[in-house]
Write a structure and sequence with these properties.
heterodimer; A: alpha+beta; Immunoglobulin-like; 2 domains; seven-stranded mixed beta sheet; five-stranded mixed beta sheet; 12 strands; elongated; B: mainly alpha; Cytochrome C Oxidase, Chain A; two-stranded antiparallel sheet; 20 helices; globular
Amino acid sequence: MRADIIAAVNQGIIAIVQLRHRADFMRRRCGWLRLSPLALLASLSGCSGHQLRLLHPDGPIAATSLRLSVIDVLIMLCIILPTGIFVAISLWRFRAARKARYDPGFTHSVRLEVLMWGVPFAAVATLAYFSWRGVFLVNPYAPTALGQRKSLLAMPDRPGKANPLVIDVVATDWQWLFIYPDQHIAILNALRLPAGRNIEFRLTATDVVNDFYIPQLIGMIDVMPGMRTKDMMRADRPGVWQGFSADISGAGFSWMQFPTRVMTQAGFAAWVAKTQAVPTHLDYARFRSMARPTIDLGNVTQVFSAVQPHLFSRIVHAAMNGVTYTTPMFLTEHMRRDLARRVPYLSGYPHS
Amino acid sequence: MLVHLQGAWTPWLGRLTLSQIPYNSPIVLGAFVFALLMAVPIVALFTYYRRWGYLIREWITTLDHKKIGVMYIIIGLVMLLRGFIDGVMIRTQQLLADGPRSAAHLQAVHGYLPPFHFDQIYSSHGTIMIIFAVTVVLTGFQNIIVPLQIGARDMAFPYLNAVSLWLTAAGAALVMISLFVGDFSHAGWVGIIPLTELPYSPGVGVDYWDWALQLSSLGTTLGALNLITTIVMMRAPGMRWFRMPFFTWATLSTQTIGLTAFPVLGVALALLSCDRYLGTHFYTAGLGGNLMLYTDLFWIWGHPEVYFIILPAWGIMSEVIPTFSEKALFGYTVMVAATLSIAGLSWAVWLHHFFTMGAGPGVNLVFSVSTMLVGIPTGVKVFNWSLTLYRGRLRFETPMLWAIGALFLLLVGGLTGMMLAIPAINYTVHNSVFVVAHFHTMFLVSVFGIFAGLMYWFPKVFGFRLDEHSGRRFFTFFSLGTVFVFAAMYILGLMGMTRRLDYLYDPHWQPLLIIQEFGIFLYCVSVFYFCKMIYVSIRDRAKEAHGQDVWQTSRTLEWMTQTPVPFYNFAVIPVVHGRDAWAMRRDSGLTATSPDQYEDIHLPNNTIVPALLGGLAFGFGFGMVWRIWWLAGFSLLGIIGLVILRSFADDKGFTLKAAMVRRMERNHEDTGIMTDHISPPVAELMLFQ
């Protein structure tokens, strides 16, 4: 009997580990998703599988989130599917017209009540374990998912922090500035990354809170004025992904997008060298004029060289000391009426 | 002035100028015409039939908990319609503004709404649906049903009850008037900080949101106090704790949350008002402020508020499912324990609303596990409902359909809720429409519960049933609409679409947005059938009239009263001998309610003071929003003066003589209708006589 139980548990663990490998394998193939009802629905509606961004991660952080989602859904379905089926069968079987067995006295059962507390408890305990693994695997400050891949059931290993590329992210109203402090360059409203290298973001905002998000690569992290948050990621392969703000920040919020181009290591180095040679420099004074409220309608990008050292800390400290960039009323309440007057505040406005 | 204001300010009108009325916006103009079309016939009918006096004597001044409850529900349903129209506008904008090539109409860049207008619409959608629709309707149900279920004549504090109603009405009126005078908040229903601070929200929108919430939260807090006292103190003899109907237990848990949580919202908003009016730095990013303080305070209220909305709906389901299963609720004691533990846990999970703030693994893990713990008692409830169905004799009348629909929605919401409780998953979907779809699933559990309750208790309150035929159509189209809108929304979430976007960058979302719009169309059809249901039911009210127990299998004490319920509820307070008191009496053939002896019934007189307080509260809110200091000052003084004056009123109340009670009851039993129309007089009118 006991041996049977142990064997069953072992089987279960093996199944989960295999599932993980299968998920990895299938993720590369991408074919399996077309079979899932969800994707079927999506493809019926004319979407290709790759539009389901969260199901096609391209980096270890997003892949970990997906893996945990699959485990979570499977565990929950073990309870929810039987319950749903039980309800459906009861509805059919005990409808009055059918004159099935009617037992108004069946209103209490200690055995069932123990079961109905016990089963959800077991599920929550299992999910709590995975949640505990998860918070370390994708911990924004030191995600262990970037380290050596281990089984999901193993203890958290040490964070993979080897030689990350540091990028300072500044969200203004309503644009994104990415500063590469070690390379002394910066780029506005677009992001360039090398593939296969760990990236460490340090994030702050000038005015209001935004969320930094690239669905296939990195989960959301709040970008807050006067504070510094961090996040880490790695991209598996070169390509272009859409990054954007995920938290409402005012009139220009919907256009706060930054195409994220992941390049080969050599390509990235070449881009850095080229950018270091551009004549436009960036110091705090220029940043201040750039940070006034601007709706980036046309996704206008710009690169800067010779970025002032410690610009990021300067911005954080300025916000802490009460520097704000007031939103003029014709970008909010009077937006309708003063359509003509807001044009200078729009970059790439088609009619300007 | 302690703060820097953009725009003009004058002592008499504050920030109010003629240009604040957006008559040049075709959308607002359309809304205004629509509101007129709704209002003019109502006003005309009241004038034509000379019913204004009746309205004031019987409704505006009433302290009767049932009439107050009905008014709560009417306000809630009107706001539900307004919130629904907002929802239609949001979805339509997103459909039209998808992809860089999408066309621009009116004055928008893409779609037909400029960003600031769009932001107002989703902010008012959220605020209205949560605070002024679902909360208000559920409060109405609790007001009507709880005193009846526990065998009381009225609430513990009938006067306070009316004050709560009129404060809520004042808040709702502020939200409605913001549509036509000035603007509403653009910072979401949660009031994202520091976007709500003066430099980033220079207009009056955030102030409207702030004071509307402040007034209604005051009303809700007072209402919670009242309901808790009623349940603790006013139960009929023999109604022990574990004989209370389950809906009353749900109300007790709900209002305990309400009493403890809503003051936190009051404080959070008061500090925000200090920032916006006095130039303090509680929540600013700089100068020592802490914006996370607001986020914490808001969600310390906000999460319990979620259960404030869902628990009464679960209470309604726990009344409806046993009635139409012809069986007592399975595992009553366990259900009570589950409800109380959900109410307790609701306090320990608020941080899951901002897992992405950059907290360390320890903090996120604690709140992740506490959130998942809520799933245990919730699972217990689902199992209990399913086992109530098991070996029952199920009748699928409309209330039952809604309850079953809610049960299935809860399964879906539970599945996705458990995903969101895990931070590693939450990071990828935190502000996406996946979350929006999840919490709409949960709120729809509440809405389905509301409609179950509406169909279930309507005959009790008004004396006739709602039309079954159009009721079923209403249910079918509403459910189909739910499936189309939110199934598509879950998938859009997995496609990486985030919330509150005025312009969508990805044209691949178009097909699913069209599916959503189709779902919205089905919702519109369901609204038509809802109106038809109300119309047909009122037209055929004589045909559908029913006695005290419409469903024949209901179990609790409210079904023991005459139908429609007389203003004194019970001619003689019943003695309770067990759980499901009415079912017990029916099973033992003790349904005859005419006692041997009647006694005098004492009830409070009607009074206009609560409605005046509501009006003054509206004046105060409006004055503060537009910074018209004299108006706000006089209104506040008026409120204080009126409260003091009322405390001196020598009002002995109203006594209905035993003989009269006997006549009314006997008449009622013979004819099935209330022939003697009697209700307490208005106290203030008596002063002039």
